[in-house]
């Protein structure tokens, strides 16, 4: 075990988008660079935690000192998170697709008739892990990207998902949070909401990890 305030603790972090195949050459995805999730994984490792980062397809590099599992779909991300348990901390930063497509084995051809896609709901990884009665991580953190009614939606999400904290951010028109270097968030827990000033994603990650350390000290 290393040194640091989180030495001996295991943290699982999800990051990036998921890709849901339509056919062998096409997919649907969410917008996510993986920057915030990767920064959190890095900050947790710097605090001495053993970190498993489960990431969808991103162009940012694997953080050093972190065990990375690369996945494409939400179902694969779910399986990788389950395989990484038990954990003390779980941070669900990934922009997971809510649905997957009933896939076509072969590339869909342009035929004059528009193709129809059937969508199937994906597992909600955060909700599933947070609602476990056995083996639930001590601290389960979710993210909420909202374009309107940020606080109401985040508060409702905290309850619905069963997590301990929701980190909410406004990704509405005019926001450069998605893909950008900076973030502006509100931390929502059972005691209320706390607005954090706009800062780099690295600074947000450091601040978040400081808060996690308080929980474990
Ligand atoms: O419900 P919504 O997608 O807005 O919730 C966002 C939070 O839930 C994020 O923490 C995200 O990582 C997590 N999530 C998940 N699995 C899903 C959908 C969302 O873990 N299928």
Automatic annotation (TrEMBL):
Give residue ranges for domain DNA/pantothenate metabolism flavoprotein C-terminal: 6-214
Q: Give me the Gene Ontology terms describing cellular component.
A: phosphopantothenoylcysteine decarboxylase complex
Question: What keywords is this UniProt entry annotated with?
Answer: Decarboxylase, Flavoprotein, FMN, Ligase, Lyase, Magnesium, Metal-binding, Multifunctional enzyme
Question: Region annotation Phosphopantothenate--cysteine ligase: residue ranges?
Answer: 11-217
Give cofactor(s), names only. Answer: Mg(2+); FMN
Which top-rank group of organisms is this from? Bacteria
Question: What catalytic activity is recorded?
Answer: N-[(R)-4-phosphopantothenoyl]-L-cysteine + H(+) = (R)-4'-phosphopantetheine + CO2; (R)-4'-phosphopantothenate + L-cysteine + CTP = N-[(R)-4-phosphopantothenoyl]-L-cysteine + CMP + diphosphate + H(+)
Q: Which biological process annotations from GO are given for this protein?
A: coenzyme A biosynthetic process; pantothenate catabolic process
Family per record = In the N-terminal section; belongs to the HFCD (homo-oligomeric flavin containing Cys decarboxylase) superfamily.
| Protein name per UniProt | Coenzyme A biosynthesis bifunctional protein CoaBC
Q: Please report the organism this UniProt entry assigns to the protein.
A: Acidiphilium rubrum
Q: Which gene is annotated as encoding this protein in its UniProt record?
A: coaBC
Question: In terms of the whole protein, what range is present?
Answer: 188 to 404 of 404
